[in-house]
């Protein structure tokens, strides 16, 4: 699929070229930086929905949302720009507008999102986080998309990895710190050990660009990747990688997170999500980014059961 992107050199290519901008971006993001101006005109909102917003937040007129800044096409900052873009950004902006709110985007590493929610640094987050029962103990999810998973490996699959749970014994899998990969790697390692083979290992990296570069350079043997973004990683790595299915992982729900202490705000955004489904905005955003494969026709709250 052809993902809409600016004409730019990506984080991955900069890493391959040895440039340092990605490291600078990450060090800034670790402190939490604003990714979009909040001085745009205040949305009027839908009167039937604006009344659902907690009064203090409605008076403030702005919601603080945390996101990871380096995963295209979901949430990423193009080189030479400060404003974050992607389908997650468009979806959250559209929901907030229905509620008469502007979004103050805060860019942080993925593993800081739940920490930021629990410390009340953010009112919400959206970054393609997998809804899991264990995470539901910390936050509430508004599930707005589904995602499938593939392996990305070097061209030609030199390690002869297969799609099965025991198809990567002894290999190193790279992923972003705090992601859902540990659960999958633990499943693979257990299957390998049961067969008397070397366990699969997880190597964690601070950002997606670091992870991608590690695979291209051979420091890891594979990584998990969303099925809707295979064309992005192939373009960014000059087709040095190829994908294969992950047969032991069903499609999962991905959601925006909200504090368990503020169900009123959660419910307001859930109503806004249903509204952008009904008026066609949701479908238009998915089409714009060529990610119709993520479509979840009936969104919900805390849909994951495992």
UniProtKB/TrEMBL annotation:
Pfam family, one: SBP_bac_3
Keywords from the UniProt entry: Signal
Domain of life assignment: Bacteria
Solute-binding protein family 3/N-terminal domain: residues covered: 62-293
Signal peptide: 1-29
SUPFAM superfamilies in UniProt: Periplasmic binding protein-like II (SSF53850)
The name this protein goes by in its record: ABC transporter substrate-binding protein
The organism of origin for this protein: Nocardioides ginsengisoli
Lineage of origin: Bacteria, Bacillati, Actinomycetota, Actinomycetes, Propionibacteriales
């Amino acid at each position: 699929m052809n993902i809409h992107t600016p004409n730019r050199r990506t984080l991955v290519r900069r890493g391959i070229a040895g440039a340092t901008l990605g490291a600078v971006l990450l060090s800034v993001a670790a402190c939490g930086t604003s990714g979009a101006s909040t001085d745009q005109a205040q949305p009027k909102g839908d009167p039937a929905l604006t009344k659902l917003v907690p009064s203090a937040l409605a008076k403030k007129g702005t919601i603080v949302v945390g996101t990871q800044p380096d995963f295209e096409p979901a949430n990423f900052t193009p080189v030479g720009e400060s404003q974050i873009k992607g389908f997650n950004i468009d979806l959250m902006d559209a929901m907030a507008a229905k509620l008469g709110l502007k979004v103050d985007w805060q860019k942080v590493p993925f593993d800081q999102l739940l920490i930021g929610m629990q410390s009340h640094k953010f009112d919400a987050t959206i970054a393609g986080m997998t809804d899991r029962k264990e995470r539901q103990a910390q936050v509430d999810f508004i599930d707005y998309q589904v995602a499938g998973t593939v392996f990305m490996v070097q061209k030609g699959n030199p390690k002869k990895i297969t799609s099965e749970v025991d198809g990567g014994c002894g290999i190193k899998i790279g992923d972003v710190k705090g992601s859902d990969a540990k659960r999958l790697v633990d499943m693979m390692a257990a299957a390998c050990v049961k067969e008397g083979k070397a366990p699969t290992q997880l190597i964690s990296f601070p950002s997606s660009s670091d992870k991608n570069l590690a695979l291209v350079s051979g420091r890891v043997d594979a990584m998990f990747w969303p099925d809707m973004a295979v064309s992005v990683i192939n373009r960014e790595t000059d087709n040095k990688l190829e994908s294969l299915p992950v047969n032991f992982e069903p499609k999962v729900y991905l959601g925006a997170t909200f504090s368990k202490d503020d169900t009123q705000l959660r419910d307001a955004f859930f109503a806004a999500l249903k509204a952008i489904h009904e008026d066609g905005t949701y479908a238009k955003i998915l089409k714009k980014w060529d990610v119709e494969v993520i479509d979840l026709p009936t969104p919900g709250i805390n849909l994951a059961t495992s």
